[in-house]
Design a protein that fits this description.
The complex is a heterotrimer. By secondary structure, chain A is of the alpha/beta class. Chain A contains nine helices and four strands, in the order H-H-E-H-E-H-E-H-E-H-H-H-H. Chain B is an alpha/beta fold. Chain B has one domain: NADH:ubiquinone oxidoreductase Nqo5 subunit (Beta Polymerase, domain 2, 2-Layer Sandwich), CATH 3.30.460.80. Chain B starts with 5 loop residues before the first helix and ends in a 36-residue tail after the last strand. Classes of the chains: A alpha/beta, B alpha/beta, C alpha+beta. The interface between B and C is large, with 40 and 48 residues.
Chain lengths: 206, 169, 407
């Protein structure tokens, strides 16, 4: 950011400045023709893997149902095989017992992959601040979009998927999850304190 | 519904009167308190009762009374109590059998009598650490096998022994 | 004729064609596990020889959490038990609370609770039947049942404000009265659709050859065994035992309405599914009758200890203000030493709540008796000797909701 924005001698940063800065960044990193084609094909064929554990899975099924049809946006096949999917929707509470399973399934997905964390439990542990619940799936996997709600309306998750499609449309070049989520990976590797992975290995109770 | 179990209790008193410590009524209905060792005999007698056989063991609940004195001032009879929730499907009658035990005591298993006791006792073992002698497969059911604590005991903190905080929180 | 290779007796005994047993892990992340279950199967070819289940992948420590929350807050926990038929859980919890507190709920509230419970029951049965068909391979009924479920959601949203996690009951009654136009909405829009979808399911499934082959005789359990396993609800009724908490111990308005209890003959998957279809029809009957008898009046008990006073009382009188403050800040307080158990007919069976009170605004112990926990415990008994392909059909017909199973 500039130290002194023009027109404002006090040096305050206004919303207009932020918008301008974002515009500059977008100008610099615009996808070329090949990237545009790849992005277009990726975003309109996002196959979700619903990692549905609890109540949010039912709202996800509501989104897939015929009233709010998700497949009109390209998410035609809801496959439960991680090898065939590129969008993981973590829907529901992740417990300490389930966390290694979630991590394994995430790692089994092929690049490029995105994660939407649906519902309060997947985002932060929700209302279950107890001994057995993982307080947010972003402690073990990097998340692209968080959808709040308990359970969020299916329209909200659909909005997240549409936002994700827009973001995919702006991607430049081939980025792996590691590059897209660089900070989260660093956090996980360097560890801000004890990582949940250590807790998982030790059974969560120590 | 509450008083309908009275005839069954009378029949039980005739056969196993010595084993019954107390019969009282509260919000659960009629409750028969027995000693820990008499539980299988009493359950068997109720299951083979003449006009209202208690063929369904709906549930086994345990309560940890270790904070009871500090919270209410009343004195509990022991550390733990086990409630056997019995129901007679043919007669639509419900009855509770209650038994008290201390920490470390082993309760007799009801698995030879009711198939539902298998998993119900596994929950009690998992959550409270109460062992059941004669249970064919007593292991944890909800928590991972290497979890070292009994979460529903009153001294176990709700967020766990090592809550998932980031250091700056 | 002389044999080319004379066989000795010893040789024949050692000849074992089904030599290898395979261990197959089914779940916990699997399309047909309906949440998070794990079944470890020992297979000989396609036949299941041994079946071991593992649950607890959604154990959220609800009973421990309930010891830290007030009686009106715990209704949110009850929401997340059987999250397909949420209103029934709310009613079950608060009914147990009212028994503990010794409060009578006014008739309008009991009728409204009955009506919305039955709407939730229809929604739950749709969740069972739709995905069950998908697991068997029949994708079409899923869309129809889900449409009906969306209509049930619209009704729930109209009354409670939320589609799924309603948390609408309070100690002493309901959070608010039903809106205008509910009766018309239900009788003109919802109920005809219920009957139509049930008839459609009948026409799609009951005579379908493949569906019959996959579900008749599959996963059957006898009456005595089902009762011994603690089965309740549609699974028990499919085995032939007509036990329904609504009839055996009538609560809410079920004593005032007329309904039949559908009972199956064989206890197999087919019976379990069609008992649910028939129950939806009976639920529609109950809703119709309850709506026609819906009384006027308040929806909350007239008890200042537990029910929020009216706003003009709060702003006009000091006692109203004090009661409002105490109920909002601390919640209603139950009598010390009181214990109670009360059960309702959940969509899966008898949902019971055991509460021990220590005289404060939070329970000392809250225990949930989950119906599908006991239903699932019989899975090894049902699956041994059957084929692998029967497993999704049976598990889905048992309607295992992990939120309830894993407490």
């Amino acid at each position: 950011m500039r130290d002194k924005p023009p027109g404002d001698p006090s040096g305050r940063v206004t919303l207009a400045d932020l918008n301008e800065a974002a515009e500059m960044v977008r100008e610099l990193k615009k996808p070329g023709a090949a990237a545009k084609f790849v992005n277009w094909s990726r975003k309109h064929s996002l196959w979700p893997i619903p990692f549905g554990t609890a109540c949010c899975a039912i709202e996800f099924m509501g989104m897939v149902g015929s009233s709010l049809d998700l497949s009109r946006f390209g998410a035609e096949f809801v496959r439960f095989s991680p090898r065939q999917c590129d969008l993981m929707i973590v829907a529901g509470t992740i417990t300490n017992k389930m966390a290694p399973v979630l991590k394994t399934i995430y790692e089994q997905m092929a690049e490029p992959k995105w994660v939407i964390s649906m519902g309060a439990c997947a985002c932060t542990g929700g209302m279950f601040n107890t001994y057995s619940v993982l307080q947010g799936c972003d402690r073990i996997i990097p998340v692209d979009y968080y959808v709040p709600g308990c359970a969020p309306r299916p329209e909200a998750v659909m909005y997240a998927i549409l936002q994700l499609q827009e973001r995919i449309g702006n991607e430049t070049g081939v980025l792996s999850s590691k590059e897209r989520h660089r900070e989260a990976w660093i956090r996980g590797v360097k560890g801000r304190g004890r990582t949940p992975k250590d807790q998982l290995l030790r059974g969560g109770g120590e | 519904m509450n008083q309908q179990a009275q005839p069954a209790i009378e029949r039980l008193k005739n056969t196993l009167g010595g084993k019954i410590q107390e019969v009282y009524e509260d919000g659960r209905g009629l409750v028969v308190r027995v000693g820990l060792d008499s539980v299988p005999a009493v359950l068997e007698a109720l299951r083979s009762d003449a006009s209202s056989p208690f063929d369904m063991l709906t549930d086994i609940t345990a309560v940890d009374w270790s904070r009871w004195t500090e919270e209410t001032g009343m004195q509990p009879q022991a550390r733990f109590s086990l409630y056997y929730n019995l129901y007679s499907v043919s007669a639509a009658v419900r009855l509770f059998v209650e038994s008290w035990l201390e920490d470390g005591q082993e309760a007799p298993s009801a698995t030879p009598l009711y198939a539902s006791a298998n998993w119900a006792e596994r929950i009690v073992f998992d959550m409270f650490g109460i062992r059941f002698s004669g249970h064919p497969d007593l292991r944890r059911i909800y928590l991972p096998d290497d979890f070292e604590y009994s979460p529903l005991r009153k001294e176990f903190p709700r967020r766990g022994v090592d809550p998932q905080d980031f250091p700056q929180e | 004729m002389k044999e080319a290779f004379p066989r000795s007796v010893e040789c024949e005994e050692k000849l074992d064609l089904c030599a290898e047993r395979m261990i197959l892990n089914w779940g916990p992340s699997h399309p047909a596990t309906h949440g998070t279950l794990r079944v470890v199967l020992t297979l000989e070819g396609e036949t299941i020889v041994k079946c071991d289940t593992e649950i607890g992948y959604l154990h959220r420590g609800l009973e421990k959490l309930a010891e830290d929350w007030t009686y009106n807050q715990i209704v949110n926990i009850s929401d997340r038990l059987n999250y397909c038929s949420v209103f029934i859980n709310n009613v079950g919890w608060h009914q147990a609370c009212e028994k503990l507190f010794g409060i009578q709920v006014p008739p309008r509230a009991t009728y409204l609770r009955t009506i919305m419970s039955e709407v939730a029951r229809i929604a739950d049965h749709m969740v069972c039947i739709g995905p069950n068909c998908v697991d068997i391979g029949v994708l079409t009924p899923f869309w129809y049942t889900w449409n009906l479920r969306e209509m049930a959601y619209d009704l729930l949203e109209l009354v409670t404000g939320a589609r799924m996690t309603t948390a609408f009951t309070r100690v002493g009654g309901l959070a608010a009265d039903a809106p205008e136009g509910l009766e018309e909405r239900i009788t003109k829009v919802f109920l005809p659709e219920v009957y139509r979808v049930m008839d459609e399911l009948d026409s799609l499934l009951s005579k379908n050859r493949i569906f019959n082959d996959r579900t008749r005789g599959v996963g059957a359990l006898s009456k005595e065994e089902a009762v011994s396993y603690g089965w309740t609800g549609p699974c028990l009724r499919a085995c032939g035992v007509a036990y329904d908490v609504r009839a055996a111990n009538p609560y809410l308005a079920y004593g005032d309405v007329d309904f039949d209890i559908p009972v199956g003959g064989h206890g197999d998957t087919y019976d379990r599914l069609f008992v649910r279809v028939e129950e939806c029809r009976q639920s529609a009957r109950i809703i119709e009758q309850a709506l026609s008898k819906l009384p006027d009046g308040p929806v909350n008990a007239d008890d200042k200890r537990v029910v929020l006073p009216k706003k003009d009382d709060v702003y006009g009188h000091i006692e109203g203000l004090i009661h409002h403050f105490e109920i909002v800040m601390f919640g209603p307080k139950a009598p010390a030493g009181a214990q109670c158990y009360d059960s309702v007919e959940g969509a899966n069976g008898e949902l019971g709540f055991t509460i021990v009170s220590n005289g404060t605004n939070k329970p000392y112990r809250m225990h949930v008796r989950p119906p599908c926990f006991y239903v699932f415990s019989a899975l090894p008994r049902l699956m041994v000797g059957r084929l692998l392909a029967d497993l999704p059909a049976v598990v889905a017909s048992l309607n295992i909701i992990a939120g309830e199973l894993d407490l």
